[in-house]
Structure formats: structure tokens, C-alpha cells
Design a protein that fits this description.
3 helices
């Protein structure tokens, strides 16, 4: 019975880490997405924000979300 509880706790810990990774990724995505381009912003700054959003999205899809989908299948 203790072994079952240890396995259950391990699964909950893994789930919490996956959720934290996904939320962290969304936080970074939102921060880059809402960055205002003011009057003094350059085209380079806008390009940087666009590239950062793309990199964050690709990173979220390839790692945390894929792991979460794999986790849910079990």
C-alpha cells in the first residue's frame, strides 16, 4: 500500500512540474506578446519580440505540452 502511495505522489509531482512548465511558457509568451512598440521602438525590437514569441511557442509545443499529452495517455 505504501508503494502505491509513493507512485501516486510521484505522478502528482510530475504533473505539477509539467503544469508549472506550461504556465511559465505561457507567461513568457504573454509578456513578449503584450510588449508595446512605442514611438521610439525600432523595427529590430519588433522583430525581436516576434521571434521570441515564435521560439517560445515552438518550445512549449515540443517539450512541456508534448510531455503533458504523453502523461495524460497513461
Amino acid at each position: 500500500m505504501e508503494r502505491d502511495q509513493a507512485v501516486f505522489d510521484n505522478l502528482l509531482d510530475r504533473e505539477n512540474k509539467l503544469v508549472a512548465d506550461i504556465l511559465s511558457g505561457f507567461r513568457g509568451l504573454v509578456l513578449h506578446g503584450v510588449a508595446k512598440a512605442g514611438d521610439r521602438s525600432s523595427t529590430g525590437q519588433a522583430a525581436y519580440n516576434a521571434m521570441a514569441v515564435e521560439i517560445l511557442m515552438n518550445g512549449m509545443v515540443t517539450h512541456p505540452i508534448t510531455n503533458a499529452i504523453t502523461y495524460v495517455r497513461f
